[in-house]
Task: structure prediction
Amino acid sequence: MAASLSRDALRIFHAALKAADPAQAVVRHVKLIGQVLTAGRKRYRLGAFRKIYVIGAGKASAEMAQAIERMLGKRISGGLINIKYGHAAHLRRIELHECGHPIPDRNGELGAERIAEIARQAGPDDLIVCLISGGASALLPLPVPPATLEEKQETTRLLLHCGANIHELNCVRKHISAVKGGQLAQLAWPATTLALILSDVIGDDLDVIGSGPTVPDRSTFADARAILGKYGIAGKVPAAVSQRLAGSAPETPKPGDKIFENVQNLIVGSNRLAVDAAAQQARALGYRTLVLSTFIEGETRDVARVHAAIAKEIRASGRPVKPPACVISGGETTVTIRGMGLGGRNQEFALAAAQDIAGLKDVVILSAGTDGTDGPTDAAGAIADGSTIARGLDAAAFLANNDSYHFFENIGDLIKTGPTGTNVADVRIMLLR
Result:
């Protein structure tokens, strides 16, 4: 491993993490001066509200809640946030409820029931602050009968295994849920709702982030059925899910619905902000830096090959940027699972890219999730260079078995940050001396 390049890649990645700090994201956009809370361009006179509740879900929502609690203090009447196991923080007035991700579990369902009840009992003189970050879809499971939690779990597994992207996954989730797709706002109406959103979605589509519990839903039951058909799993999902998606139920709330008149949805952080900070750090380290895109999606191995091809082009011709070069991209890819191994999209990216840059000197490729957990592993991602394949075991076999974690574990090139408290999708960094 090119040690100095690896150190620089990690420094650049940590600059992205710092910029994505959820508490700082909140305080950049929300201010309290006296009795007036300003969120973006909107002002809330707190004296006009009888009670203030804080609810929400997501991997970064604990740190977001800390920022709100420090800001509002005793003005908060209570609240509940569903968070991923191990992502807790110290709070006094807002309860944190740990539950399962990426597969929802019974704890998540119990927390979602209580969150829905808080929203439902809020009155016209109450303010609800809703905190949403990446992971909220899995962490806010409240299936609509006749679908059960177990059937929603199975549907989620099928979609994850076939490589559905986050837009497709969340479209289906919204239509078997009692709170997603604007339905949490529907429960809260006529209370005033301020939703603070940390985006992990390409393009920052509000109705996709966390499945848009407070946002008008542009998708339909027909769209959800089409996604199951696209991946050939319409006949594999549980019968109750098929029954729900048949379309006889009322559609999720759409744009123009009166329930959104008292709702503000404000994005406070995103992948773009993290990538911009990474680029700034790379330039400070002396690299000619190119941000490729923050809209990267698609099959992980295909995206990895494109990045490796760019590295080869830089090495061969100095295009599109001359060395010392840094190429950064953001977004979120998907993995079609065919094997029985352990890994995540970032580790798989690094292993697939390592195959294509094998033998190249003075090149490093890093791919990592900003939440610190890549797939069902304790690693954020992995880092590779031109010697990775030669130093490891049979890379092709590990890749075929979706076992990138154990490949990189064997050579000591996993990236382990622990839970970062944030989640703004993935960052990929290529360095060439």
Notes: The longest strand covers residues 76-84. The chain has a mean pLDDT of 95.
